[in-house]
Write a structure and sequence with these properties.
alpha/beta; 60s Ribosomal Protein L30, Chain: A; Alpha/beta knot; 2 domains; seven-stranded parallel beta sheet; four-stranded mixed beta sheet; 11 helices; 11 strands; 17% strand
């Protein structure tokens, strides 16, 4: 005898049929709250990523406690204070730096007017502003320099001998600062770098330049190949330095107007830069190890070419 299953609970009430889509699309066919929502004005579309205002980037060397570029180190600060093109905001110095450089700093500050008054700061506070930097107890808050465009620089150069240094995507600020220092010693009119993938003006760059940043314009150009074309139109001879070049620097007789092109360590000069160079030269090496620091290579090349040019005049 089979058992019958016990009857289930009471039957569920039948669902009322939904209104048709045409009825749902009208305010009368919707519940009151949904009808009210439909009458709201449409929310404006959010702007795309390209339309949003760009967030202002902090300048190189700028910290949360400052509003400008922080230069540090004795030579960099003294040279910046002596540069009339440099807009200075605050001069910070420790007690030790006050005793060591006080008279020189006060004289340069007075020459700028009453707006720049040296401010005493503790060493620990200055260390916090410049972590890891060899600041020598001095810091100067400034605006970045505004170098000329290459066309303006070339228009202001006198006729006759001239020397420029071009850096192809050299990103290390210490290398760029050292190149600026050598460029100042050997009389280069400017150092030209790329706008992207290159070291920006910073406290580390100025410290490595040891005051040369205030003497030699540091230009940032968007297209280095186009810059070489402009230089050739102005009568410059473009020399690229590459370790695999067949022509040695020692046997080269340089013309009066020179543009020296050096690339980053490892990568070297890019293809378009090489193609724009009139000649590729190699620095002398005693063996097969030719991996020379770019700032050292620039110093050697500048010395050799300047010595030959000066020797040719005498």
């Amino acid at each position: 005898m089979t058992r019958r299953k016990p009857p289930r609970g009471p039957a569920r009430p039948t669902r009322q049929p939904r209104p048709s889509r045409s009825a749902q699309g009208t305010p009368e066919g919707r519940p009151p709250e949904r009808a009210a929502r439909a009458e709201r004005p449409e929310r404006p579309e959010r702007p795309g990523r390209a339309e949003r205002p760009a967030r202002p980037e902090r300048r190189p060397g700028e910290t949360a406690a400052t509003h400008g570029l922080l230069l540090y180190g004795t030579h960099a600060v003294l040279a910046a204070l002596a540069n009339p093109a440099r807009r200075c905001r605050r001069l910070l110095l420790t007690e030790e730096a006050q005793r060591r450089e006080g008279p020189a700093l006060e004289g340069l500050a007075r020459a700028r007017g009453a707006t720049l008054v040296p401010e005493r700061i503790g060493r620990e506070a200055l260390d916090a502003l410049l972590p890891g930097a060899v600041h020598q107890g001095l810091a100067l808050e400034t605006d970045p320099l505004q170098p000329p465009f290459l066309e303006e620089l070339l228009a202001g150069l006198p006729e006759g001998p001239a020397l420029l240094v071009l850096l192809d995507q050299v990103t290390d600020p210490h290398n760029v600062g050292a190149v600026l220092r050598s460029a100042a010693v050997f009389g280069a009119a400017a150092v030209v770098a790329t706008e992207r993938h290159a070291a920006a003006e910073s406290g580390a760059l100025a410290k490595a330049a040891s005051g040369a940043l205030e003497r030699v314009p540091y230009l940032r150009e968007v297209n280095l190949a186009r810059s070489l074309d402009l230089l050739k139109q102005a009568g410059f001879w473009a020399l690229g330095f590459a370790s695999e070049a067949r022509q040695p620097l020692a046997g080269y007789d340089p013309p009066e107007r020179l543009a020296l092109c050096l690339g980053a360590e490892g990568a070297g000069l890019r293809r378009l830069t090489r193609e724009r160079c009139d000649l590729l030269l190699a620095l002398p090496a005693a063996g097969d190890f030719r991996d020379l620091n770019v700032s050292n290579a620039a110093a050697i090349a500048l010395y050799a070419l300047t010595a030959k040019r000066l020797g040719a005049r005498t």
